[in-house]
Every structure is written in structure tokens, then in C-alpha cells.
Amino acid sequence: RHPRDLQNHACIGWRPRPDTAPYRWEFTENDRDFDVAVDPTVTTNDMGMMIRMACAGAGITFGMVETFEPCIDRGELVPLLEDFCPPFPGFYLYYPRRQRQPLKLRALVDYVRRFDRR
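Predicted structure:
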């Protein structure tokens, strides 16, 4: 019912490296951001592994909705705590404005712009 209830559930956490603490899960309530330090049963730095484990029933995990949509659409996963999910405006790409951009950078910018949803 509330993000603080995650302490009572098996959770699948994420951490970038073994020597860092697990990522604190981020939420919003009444226009205020807060995070919860869950005590994950298992942690990984592999989002695919997190999804496979959740689909196998190993626990609750988190991530961006686009990552989980196929599993949700197939009925393999159920979204939780949606009322507490912070809005995500999207990623931004910052690069120097130059007349002569390297071809690799120009190709990346053109590729990313194809997915711009604004």
C-alpha cells in the first residue's frame, strides 16, 4: 500500500558495484520526493536479471516502466505503488554546438532524435 511496506517483502535490488550500498528506491507523495532503503534479498547490476527474477517470483523489483512493459503486457508482472511513482521527463542529450561535429556524434544525435516523443 505504501513504499515503506517494502521492508516487509522480498525485494530484488540494484547496485552499480559490490562496494556500494544498494540503490535507494525513489518515490513521490504529495509532490514531495523521498526514497526508501529496502533490504534486498538479492542485488545485481543487471536489469535483465532483475526482471527475470521478478518474473520467476523471487521478489519485488523496480525500474522504468518501459523496461517492464512487455512483461506487464503478457501478465507476467503486475505494477505496484503506481500512485507513488515520480514523473520521469526523459533523458537529455547534451553536446557541444559546433558547425563541424564528428560524424559519430552527428549519427548518435540523429538516431536519438528519432525517438523524441515531444
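Summary: The CA atoms of residues 25 and 62 lie 8 Å apart.
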